[in-house]
Every structure is written in structure tokens, then in C-alpha cells.
Fold Tail specific protease domain-containing protein.
Amino acid sequence: MKKIIILFTLLFCTFTFAQNNNISLTNTEHFIRTWGLVKYKHPNVSNGGYDMDQEFLKAYPNVLKLNTKEELNTFLIQWIKQFDSSRRVMKKEQFKNNDDTRFKENARFEWIEDASYNDALKTILGDLRDNANVGEYYLRIHSMAGSLRIENEKGLSDFSNENESHRMLFLSSFWNTMRYANVNIYLTSTPWDEVLTTFIPLVKDKKGKDFDYLKDELFAFLDDSHSDYTASKYLKDNFKYHCMFRSVLVNDSLVITSLQDKDIAQKENIALRDVIFSVDEVPVKEYIANKFTKYISSSNSSSAKHYLKYLFPLISDKQKLTLGIKRANGDIVNTEVSLFTFDELSKLNNWVSLYYEDKFPTLPQGVGYYNLDKATPKSLKETFKNFADKKAIILDLRNYPKGISERDVPKYLLPEKRRFLDLLTWSSPAYGEWGPKGAIMMVADPFVTGNKNKDYYKGTVILLVDRNTASKSEFLAMAIQQAPNCVTIGNQTAGAVMNRKLVILKDGTTIDFTSGGAFYPNDRTYSVQRNGIKIDHIVPEQATGYNSYGVIQYAVDWAKENVLEKD
């Protein structure tokens, strides 16, 4: 009988603890949402009147003590009212008929109608949501550029990831900054509201190194290739040694494309064009998912492959790894390979590469090819002069040109000025608007390219893109695509077009995000952010028989069939 009583008591205590813990987590979520709304929308807070970090730290321990809906409502109402003042009062947004043209995809305030809230609290939260008398202490528009500025954010001077209140402030500050400042946050694969719900219990429980690793997982949910976290402890701890070969990720395998030392490669039984299908007996797809993509923010799977060519295939905290390899002749082998430090790699210089072994495609007489990677205004002028009589020109933009702008190439391709991009920019907390509004528009529209040019190139422009076409390259690609006869060939691009915006986090580190949305003119249904630029012909990828010039060969074959033979 005593055993039964003891067991019942343990079960009751366990149930009570779990129930109280769930209440605590739910109340924490209510408070984080309310704290963000007050910070960015309250007239006396959004103007910098209060230190909201300290307000969070003072309130959070009391939030954990709330046990009922009544206590939650009373606490939140009193907490919000302490910021009220007759000096600055709320003013409701006023719109006539259907004049509210703001971008509202990120204005997700459904939580205000939560069943836990009484009518009084709902009214107060609703008034904050609709308030137009918002200060510019944290978020404002740059008067010249018309772009978002994030200001007066700072790290917590005594931040400790051993302190639960500090960790929860870290989450609250980052999550709310993205909710109210990031116009692309509606594009995340996991809805941003669900991210908060998921991470509250994780942030509550994890501290020390576990919390440091958790930050990378949190940032990965941004699905933004510009959000690379340079302070990542996970990457620093787990990737100390590097392989001495380069590879490309094709479907779920890795193809070795170059070897930094052919003698070591021969000794360790690896060769060019080998297809790696497993690492330490783990399939490559699973190995990447567990070790990399979980901790890296990327706009799409193609962008992830772009990052992995730098971090992968074999960067590890171990100096030896076993690879499962399929040879070009079909043989399957397992071989152990060595990994090296950066200093050791720098001393290896006995290169071999598929780019030298594979044969560059033969260009028909009527087709020209130009790689834009090292292009300059001077070289472009010479190139288009030489290619004036070509029926088709292949422009290779699977790179990041540093010497040219979005105006340099289109001036040879367009008969007149054309808009190539519609910008979605931040306008007020949680809202956006179309087009830049800064004084810069009085000088020059940054999203218009080309000039009056009766001698523009009238042949077919074949634009090559892939995972390496990122950021500025995508911006340039959208401008080139305005050419009257432009055909885009390749694979999905990085999906991160506009400029980065830096955010200071509560632990003093920083992370970037893409501050604007990119769309094609007259098509606001297709977001280039995350999706990448529009492509007319996708080139199939194949690991077996991989050809480093396969995309160029595809373009040459397409030009023969669709341009030269139809001429």
C-alpha cells in the first residue's frame, strides 16, 4: 500500500510540475509578444523613453510566477500602463476607403485575440497595434536612401548565457526585431510565430555551449542567405580540419572536382570525378542535414549548396574520415582520407582540376561566350564590339563580378531605359511599402537601367546562372534579363538580392538579414528573395559523368537548335 501511495504521489508531482512548466512557457510567450509590441509601437517607448532591456529583465521573474489567466491579464495591463503618459498619446491610423496600400503580410497580430485575454487587455493591445504616433528611436527610414535604419540596439554589458533571464531577453529581442523590421520574414518556411513557440522551451533549458549552438539553429530559421553568423561557436568548435580537395554537391552526392595535392590523393585512393556517397558510413544527405544545414541559414537548397562548397565536403573536428566512393568505372570503394589545418593546406600546391582536364565546348561561329567574373567597363566595350555580328552571346554570371554595376552590361543590350526591379521596403513597424522613397530618387532611380540606344545588341542573349549567382549577381542578372531577347539557363540562384542589414544581438555579437524584398516589375507574386531569379531552362545535374562545363555545353546546344538552325 505504501508503494502505491508513493507512486501516486510521484505521478501527481510530475503532472503538477509539467502543468506549471507549460503555464510558465505560455505566459513567457504572451510576455515576449507584448514586450515587442510595446517596444516598437508605444509612443513613449518607441521614442527611447525607457530601457526596454531592463524592463524585460525586471518583469520576467514575475511572469514566471503567474498561474491563472486572471493573473496574466492583470499583470500585462498594469505592465503596459506604466508607460502611458499625457505627453505622448496614441493616435490611430486614419485611412480613407481603400487607401491603406501598406504591405501587410508581416502584420500578424492575430495573437491579440487570444482566448486567454480579457476585453480590457485586447483593447489596450489593439490600440497599440493601430497606433500611428510611433517614435524612431529603434527603427526609422534613412532620409537620403529611403532604406531601413536599425539604431540604438546594444548588447547587454553583463550578458551571461548561464542566466535564464538574459537568454530569454536574447530570444525576445531578436525575434521581435525580425517581426517588426524584416520585410521578408513572411517568407520563412516555418511561420515566424511558430519559431517563437518552438524556441522558448529550448532557450529556457539550454545554457553554456548548448545555448551557443542553439543560436545557430535559431538563425537558420530565417531562411536568408545573407544571415551568415560569423560569431558561430558551433562552426569554430566543429570544423578545425579541412580536406585537400574541392567538390560540388550534385543531388545527394559529392563530386570531386579538384585536388590540392595529387600525390596525397593517389596515396589515399581518391581521384577526380569520384562520387562520394557516404561519410563515416552516413549517407551524404543525412550527414549534411545533421552537421550543416541545421545550423546554417540559406534562402533555398541551391544557396545551401553554395555555402557547402566552402564548408564541405570534409571539414571536421577529426583528422581522419572514411568516405564511400563510386568510381567513374562503377567500382565502389571505401577509403580513409586525411584532413588538414589551414596552415598545412597552405603548403600543399600540387593541384589538378577537372576545369583543366575537361574540354571547353566548341563554340559555333555565330555564338560568343563571355565570363562576367572579371569584367570591367573597358572589357565589356571591347567584347560587345567584337560580338556585334554574333547571332547569340552567352553571358556567364555564375560568379560575383566586382568590377561592373547593373548599368554596365544592359547599356549594350537595351534599346531604352527599363525598370528591372520592384523594391519592397520597410515603412513602419511590421509594415512595408513598394519602392524607395528617399531623396536618392530625385537624383537617379537605382532600379532603372539602360539608355536610348538604337545600336543595341539585337541577337539572343543567353544568361547563365546557378547557386553561385548571389546578391549583387542576382541584382545584375535581373537587369540583364530586361534585354528583349534574353534567355536564362542554369539552376536556382541564391535568393538573397538586396542589401544586408546588421543587427546587434544581446550577447554583443551581430547577424545580418536581407533588408528589402526584390520583385520583377509588374509581378509582385514572385519573390526573388528565397526563390532566386526566374529561369527559362533548368539544366539537369548528374553526379555520374559530371562535366564541369555541362551548363555551357547545354547553352551552346540550345543556341544551335533555337537560334542558328532557325536563322
